[in-house]
Design goal:
The structure holds two protein chains of two kinds. Chain A is built from 14 helices and two strands; from the N terminus they run αααααααββααααααα. By secondary structure, chain A is mainly alpha-helical. Chain A has a two-stranded antiparallel sheet with strand order 1-2. Chain B has 18 helices and 22 strands. In chain B, α5 runs parallel beside α6. Chain B has two domains: about 240 residues, 3-Layer(aba) Sandwich (Rossmann fold), CATH 3.40.50; about 170 residues, P-loop containing nucleotide triphosphate hydrolases (Rossmann fold). Chain B is of the alpha/beta class. Classes of the chains: A mainly alpha, B alpha/beta. Chains A and B meet through α9 and α10 of A and α10, α11 and β18 of B.
Chain lengths: ~325, ~500
């Protein structure tokens, strides 16, 4: 993949001009293959069931996507450094449980404290991940696997092993306030995506993340403090998971400690469908957005068509692997 | 007798650039052929085509009169073409035995590995070459030379009739080279044909029956090794004389710019002290592993020192942090360009701006235009050849990549430039340009510390040479001593621990 030269195949007698134009069209199609697939899938669902293309359904897809989107964003930058964050699902649960626990104890005017503390807890989990990975050199898979188990345990401890129910109505406001017909978390999601996309593309932090993932040694030789950047990256992932937990608790109106189980894998799926390399250094926020859209619309469309959920899992699995296979193929094609 | 390998009119190009042009030659059974040429001459491409990793655009390859027009890696191996690449990829955690049999394991009739049978077979294989290797040892316990030998043995066990060795002796110590040569002779005795690439002229004479020289994708020379004089081979390789490669040096300034005091690299190790004046190029010579790279990396802070002081101008440097070194004005061009120099996926502008990213920031965001201007100016000064600054660094040639690594330090407050093998893997044309850049930087008042394994480079590009052996300075050659014809010999003597010098 180092050499990005294109090789003309033997026995190719077309003129250079012809080959160029054809190649460009194919390149364009290949590069946007994910977008094309999304459009095809959407058009297909829309023709199958008129409910799919309705505003009400769009709203449902978006609000369902929001908590995932936040985790997937954090996961994107973690994966860009060449790492992985398996703990996000549990951190969601921890955030949700701590927000729920506080919300039934705090007076209504101090509910903001529940949110802040939940996010701080998530950030702390991320910082611990980052410190262990950067300074103790524990592989990210192992460090965050430990946090996955640990944070899940804390979520159960907070609720004494049971869900926390009867959250105050004021707390439910967070997820259910509508602005121009869309719930607040939808705006939170869109805003986070835009901000993160700008950060990754134009900020020093973004460049450092790409540099560390692309070649950590070279980045360090060029003066990048890789350890500090790694801690920042995992802290962001943790805090976004905390926010996601608050949003979920508010939407559900309770705090089940099993919330968020398996979310990390869906988030990773969205990131890799979006074209990021698990080796680090390659991938975009925009790609993750597309990956997320494809997972969510597929789930929603199949729901509407009343496909049993077990079969949905099978279809999801096929989609994940084929999306990445196409991406790998497209990259190899470009680098030959 | 018909040749084992016959190549006719082989051509290959990458996106319009011809890398192999009308290559025609043949190899007899049991013949040892040396393939010489600069980096980028097309040797690797030729090897890749022969082993099926690349398809030629044109031309025929005949192996034992069989046409290999649709060759892939598996077919190449089955037909008896084996390759031992320059960068070996053994399985270090597996045993020698397992390394030898990966991919063609001997199994019992129940499908289990038949270890006794493999053990016997491997003993026999190693025995043929008179090797004293225990097949049960872990691969990682072997030296580089032995690792290479095991890879060669492995290639022969696939029944190779033609073995390609890519720079077999480039990374192994002198005293193990002979062992490798012995293996090649044994293979020859068995009727196996060999093509090897090399940079050592002496090796061509010692080992080869015939020498092929490639330059810019063209086969320039095809002669019996006995008749090929080293000078003729070198001239054929580079296409011109070496004489005018090095620029004329100016006189260094008066002020001392860098002081290294009692730098100790290893516990109980020797200490190193030296000074460099502003505008002076000080070269570190010595064998591979003598400690030159360690000295440079310790000054820069990617490696920690046991103790020692480094002064840049009058300011004392806190050792151990590249960031602090950069801030005080130290720049590095590391030995391993791909591994430690560049983030290949990222653009020239991003790589170029990385060390001084802070100069181009506003509230944490990169000022794209300011960075582009600064990096652009620097890249013009090093005459980088690229389509645009947004081009990924990995798409450039080795010489141009090196220009980014050097150029990104220009135009700042750089006071000291550390160069570790700055022209490794760089072709001759770009090499001359890089030498000029280094000279210009010294003229601008920088202190330059240059480590190089290339003796002509040490002599041609420095005001002074310090020879390093086992981490300590064993000798110093001043400019007038470097101008004497015996300079090369003396550097070698100091490097290898001989006390006496020739005058």
């Amino acid at each position: 993949m180092n050499q990005k030269l294109s090789i003309t195949k033997t026995g190719n007698f077309r003129t250079l001009q012809e080959k160029w134009t054809n190649q460009r069209v194919v390149d364009l199609l290949v590069r946007n293959s994910l977008l094309i697939v999304i459009l095809i899938v959407m058009v297909y669902f829309a023709t199958q069931n008129e409910r799919f293309a309705s505003f009400g359904n769009l709203r449902a897809v978006l609000i369902a996507a929001a908590p995932f989107a936040l985790i997937a964003l954090g996961q994107t930058i973690v994966i860009l450094t060449g790492g992985i964050d398996l703990s996000v699902g549990s951190v969601v649960a921890m955030g949700a449980m701590s927000a729920a626990w506080l919300s039934i104890r705090l007076p209504p005017e101090q509910l903001w404290l529940a949110i802040v503390i939940a996010v701080i807890l998530g950030t702390l989990a991320g910082i611990i991940n980052g410190l262990v990975i950067a300074y103790l050199d524990v592989p990210p898979f192992v460090a965050t696997l430990g946090m996955l188990t640990g944070a899940s345990g804390i979520a159960y401890v907070i609720g004494g092993g049971a869900p926390i129910n009867g959250l105050p109505a004021e707390f439910a406001v967070i997820a259910n306030t509508k602005i121009f017909g869309l719930q607040f978390p939808v705006y939170l999601m869109i805003g986070s995506f835009i901000i993160m996309a700008l950060i990754m593309k134009y900020s020093a932090f973004g460049l450092r993340v790409y540099a560390i993932g692309g070649n950590r040694v070279a980045a360090e030789v060029a003066g990048v403090n890789a350890k500090r950047t790694l801690v920042q990256v995992y802290a962001i992932s943790g805090s976004l998971a905390g926010v996601s937990g608050v949003v979920l608790a508010s939407r559900v109106g309770s705090g089940p400690p099993s919330l968020g189980v398996g979310y990390e894998l869906l988030a990773i799926a969205a990131v890799v469908i979006g074209g990021a390399s698990l080796m680090g250094g390659r991938g975009t926020v925009w790609g993750t957005f597309l990956g997320l859209i494809i997972i969510q619309t597929l789930g929603n469309g199949l729901d509407i068509m009343i496909v049993p959920s077990y079969w949905q899992s099978v279809i999801n699995g096929v989609v994940i692997v084929s999306a990445v296979a196409v991406d790998v193929w497209a990259n190899r094609r470009r680098s030959r | 007798m018909a040749p084992v390998l016959e190549i006719r009119g082989l051509e290959k190009s990458f996106s319009g650039i011809t890398v192999l042009k009308n290559i025609t030659f043949s190899v007899e059974q049991g013949e040892v052929v040396a393939l010489a040429g600069e980096n980028g001459a097309g040797k690797s491409t030729l090897f890749k085509i022969l082993t099926g990793q690349l398809r030629p655009d044109k031309g025929t390859i005949l192996l034992n009169n069989e046409n290999l027009d649709r060759i892939d890696t598996r077919i190449a191996r089955e037909l008896g073409i084996g390759i031992v690449p320059q960068e070996l990829s053994p399985y270090p955690e597996l045993t020698v035995l397992e390394n030898l049999f990966v991919g063609r394991e001997i199994k019992t009739k129940f499908g289990y590995l038949d270890r006794p049978a493999m053990l016997g077979e491997s003993g026999r294989m190693l025995g043929i070459f008179g090797l004293d290797i225990n097949p049960s040892d872990k691969m990682k316990s072997l030296s580089t030379a032995y690792t290479q030998i095991v890879e060669i043995v492995k290639a022969t066990t696939w029944g190779a009739k033609l073995i390609l060795l890519d720079e077999p002796t480039s990374s192994i110590p002198e005293h193990e080279v002979e062992q490798l040569h012995e293996i090649v002779r044994t293979l020859k005795g068995q009727g196996v044909s060999i093509i090897f690439t090399t940079h050592r002229m002496s090796e061509i004479k010692q080992l080869a029956d015939r020498v092929l020289v490639m330059r810019d994708g063209v086969l320039i020379m095809d002669a019996p090794a006995a008749q090929a004089e080293p000078e003729a081979v070198v001239t054929a390789m580079i296409g011109r004389d070496l004489g005018n490669l090095f620029p004329k040096l100016s006189k260094p300034g008066k002020n001392i710019g860098l002081v290294v005091q009692d730098l100790i690299l290893h516990k109980n190790g020797p200490s190193v002290s030296f000074e460099i004046r502003e505008g002076e190029i000080l070269a570190l010579g010595g064998l591979v592993g003598a400690g030159r790279t360690e000295i440079i990396e310790t000054i820069y802070g990617v490696r920690t020192a046991v103790s020692g002081n480094v002064l840049v101008g009058t300011k004392s440097l806190v050792l151990g942090s590249p960031r602090k070194a950069i801030d005080i004005g130290i720049a590095i061009v590391p030995e391993d360009r791909k591994g430690a120099g560049l983030v290949l996926e990222r653009s020239i502008a991003e790589n170029g701006g990385l060390p001084r990213l802070r100069d181009h920031l506003a509230a944490g965001f990169v000022k794209i235009r300011s960075r582009k201007r600064t990096v652009g100016e620097a890249m013009v000064r090093v005459s980088l050849k690229s389509r645009s600054l947004d081009q990924p660094a990995g798409t450039l040639s080795g010489g141009n990549q090196q220009k980014i690594v050097i150029g990104r330090w220009l135009g700042g407050e750089t006071k000291v430039l550390l160069l570790d093998e700055p022209t490794r893997g760089v072709d001759v044309g770009a090499r001359g340009e890089i030498y000029n850049i280094i000279r210009d930087l010294a003229d601008a008042g920088l202190c330059v510390l240059l480590a190089s394994s290339d003796t002509p480079e040490l002599i041609g590009l420095s005001h002074r040479v310090l020879v390093i052996r086992d981490g300590s300075i064993t000798g110093e050659l001043k400019r007038d001593e470097l101008d004497s014809p015996s300079a090369q010999e003396n550097i070698f003597r100091l490097s290898s621990g001989q006390e006496t010098l020739v005058s």
